[in-house]
Amino acid sequence: MSPSKPRRRASLRACAAGLVLAAGLWLPAALAAGGEATVVYLVRHAEKAPVGEDPGLAPQGVDRAAALAELLRDAGITAVHSTDFRRTRGTAAPVAVQLGLAIRDYQWDDMDALVAAIRSEGGRHLVVGHSDTTPELVGLLGGDPGAPIDEPTEYDRLYVVTLGPDGTVTTVLLRYGM
After folding, report:
1. What does 104-155 look like in DSSP terms, one character per residue?
2. Tens of pLDDT along 53-110?
3. CB 3.0–4.6 Å: which of 64, 69, 76, 176 could bond 94 by disulfide?
């Protein structure tokens, strides 16, 4: 008898959580011989509502944002960054609320400033952006953005970029949510 969908989803979430912890906790510890690594979790905003100039999240986007918060609950996030759009702030909000952090706005057209701030501050950051800015930001951090995000359908990509104190950069690409 095959497992039910809820049990399979729970297993997939547990597996994804384990990978996030492996990428976000073990790898930085290994790299941190001379100091702490900086870990940056990057996602595109969750599914947006179909109408409006600055749409919020669709119901499935609200669910995906909650799944992100659950996944990153124990990742040690120290800062949450978002562009100033309803859909990105709506994706970042469950993580920020859960951890008692304020959402820090960044300008999508000045990502060099965000990269400089992250490198200077260190710690563990969640950055919520867009289908074009998220891979670009991964690249600016020195990571591998992989293939472009499919604009109309892809909302589940989660990058984990680790910046080692020795200058090494690693990228892990995961999927999260439904």
Report:
1. EE--TT-HHHHHHHHHHH-SEEEEEE-TTHHHHHHHHTT----SPP-TTT--
2. 999 999 999 999 999 999 999 999 999 999 999 999 999 999 999 999 999 999 999 9
3. 69
Q: Identity (one letter) of the amino acid at 174? A: L
3-state secondary structure of 128: strand
19's tokens:
């990978």
Structure tokens, 22: 């492996």
Maximum mean pLDDT: which of 4-8, 22-26, 127-131: 127-131
Among 172, 175, 124, residue whose Cα is nearest residue 154:
175
Query: What CA–CA distances, in Å, run from 9 to 12, 15, 53, 139, 174?
Result: 5, 10, 34, 31, 15
Q: Which helix (H) or strand (E) holds 80?
A: strand 79-82
What does the CA dihedral 131, 134, 125, 61 come to, rounded to 10 degrees? Answer: 10
Which domains does the chain carry?
5-175 (3.40.50.1240)
- Give residues with Cβ within 8 angstroms of 108, minimum separation 6: 83, 129, 130, 133
